[in-house]
Each structure stands twice: as C-alpha cells, then as structure tokens.
Amino acid sequence: MRHRTLALVLSATAASVLAAPACTSDAPAPAGAPDASVPSDAASASDAPPGSDGAAPSDGGADGSLPDATREDGGSCSGVATSGLVVQALPPGVVSGTPEIVWTTCAAKATITAGTPPKWSLEVGAGLGYYRSSLAGYKTTLTAIADSNVLKSAPGAIPIQLVQNVPGFDATKAHVVIALGTANGGCQKDGTTVAAPGHPEATVTYIDKNGSPTGGAAMTNDGLAVISGIDPTVGGGTLDPQIAANPGTCTISYTFATKSVPLVAGTVAIQNVESKP
C-alpha cells in the first residue's frame, strides 16, 4: 500500500483545529494540515509534524476487518514503535492530566511526557488496530485506525485526540466523529453530508469546531459531524460511514486506508477524511 501524509492540524492557539493522522494510497508520510477540522489544544510549530498540505487518506478504503474490541490482536502487542502528541478536541483546550493510551486491547500503556501538548510513545502489535485513550473528564476515544506498519513509517507526530463531550452521548451506545480535514480542487466542506447505513437508530448532528450543534442538515466550513446513538451490536462491531462529498464529483479519501471504524459502547471513534477531485 502506498501512503501519503499523516494529516493533522496542530496550530499555535487553543482555538485552532486538528485533523487526525491520515494515510493515502498516493504517497508516503504523514504531516500537518493547517485547515483540518477537529479542534485541538495549543501546540507549537516545532511540535507539529512537517508539511502543510495534509495528506493521507486512501481513496478506496481497506476491506479487512478491524480488530474486535474484546480480543487480543493475535498475542502480538509490541515490536512496532510509534509516538505522537496528546491533543484536546471538542472543545479546543489544554489537556489536563495524564491519559492512559493503549493499542487496541493490549495491556501495555504508552509512556507520557509532560508538555503542552503532552507527548506519548508506545510499541504496538503488528496488523490493523487503533489507539484507545482515556482520562478522567474526557470520553474514551478510539483514534488512528490503521495498519501498524503505516504508523511505524509516519515521520510526523501521531495525534491522540481527547473529547470532552459530543451531542447525544449515551454510555450504552457507540459514537463516531467525522472530521473533514481538507477540501481542495473545488471540493467543499460546506454541504458535505453524512449517514450511518444499517443503523436507523443513529442520529447525525452537524457541529462546529467547539462541538456545538449548528442546526444544519450538512457540514459547515468546520467540516465536522457526529453520528451518535449507534447500537454497537449491529453490523459486526464496525461501521462504514457514508459521506457524500460536495459537489458530488469530488471523492472522499479515507485515513489509514480503511473506511471502517470500530463500534464500542461508551466510546467516541474519530474518522478523519479528505475531499478531493
């Protein structure tokens, strides 16, 4: 699989926005993308990954299934060194406290280095998985859904996103944040719509960068939507969100070459995408 850049926004102010890591089938290496969408806490330019053209998502998405949230990843929980930053998203702010970060269901916890933002490092197991982060005062989040080899080759810092709240949160349900980080070549964030196929019980809410509902029927220029109230027992434990680009001639590119996100009760999975011709 060919990779592009790891798209993320780590700006110099607490009001700026973050795009989570992304990999594309077009080229290698993750980097920063200034116009990405999920809010983050303050981070200096020296902390942010290199590059500004955001990059990453694959156009098609992987067909392989994500690891089940309740099983070990084949007994392999080490061997691939990864590292990055811990950023607060929804709403923007400074992370207070030391989060616990693990890879899928592995027991080993990331080493956290204090700072603004904090930094983390963790060896992960081979194969497809995701980081699970938790901290008092925040919702448990699932981020960087990717193949560990893609994460290993990422030259930029991988952001672990912390979310304080999302509209419609229910601890018995699964929730997904869709962040459209980059739209170029005539493609627009504004007007992009989201759906949850096979989940009539789910609710889609379009939000601004602070996590507040916009009341609209499509994304605004902040490029954010929340799918809440998802029954995690339906669909085999994963969801392929349906994202309709604006205009329809544009293509949605999926981070880490997978369209699927894990559905785990009481958590918020974050899927970062791009829209391009």
Give the topology, please:
Blueprint: E1 7-8, E2 17-18, E3 31-32, E4 38-39, E5 80-89, E6 100-103, E7 111-113, E8 119-124, E9 128-134, E10 140-147, H1 148-153, E11 158-163, E12 174-183, E13 188-195, E14 203-207, E15 224-230, E16 238-239, E17 242-246, E18 251-254, E19 261-262, E20 267-276
Parallel strand pairs: 1-3, 5-11, 10-20, 12-20
Antiparallel strand pairs: 2-4, 5-8, 6-9, 7-8, 9-10, 12-15, 13-17, 14-15, 16-19, 18-20
Summarize the structure.
This protein is mainly β and about 280 residues long. The protein has 1 helix and 20 strands.
Instruction: Please report which band the strand proportion falls in: under 5%, 5-15%, 15-25%, 25-35%, 35-45% or over 45%.
Output: 35-45%
In terms of structural class, how would the helical and strand content be classed?
mainly beta
CATH architecture designation of the domain at 174-276 = Sandwich
Based on CA atoms alone, the radius of gyration comes out at 16 Å
- What's the main sheet like? 8 strands, mixed
The topology string of helices and strands comes to: EEEEEEEEEEHEEEEEEEEEE
Count of β-strands? 20
CATH class membership of the domain at 174-276:
Mainly Beta
CATH topology call of the domain at 174-276: Immunoglobulin-like
- Mean pLDDT across all amino acids: 76
Low-confidence stretches: 1-75
Give the proportion of residues in helices.
under 10%
Number of helices: 1
In whole angstroms, how far apart are the ends?
21 Å
Shape: globular
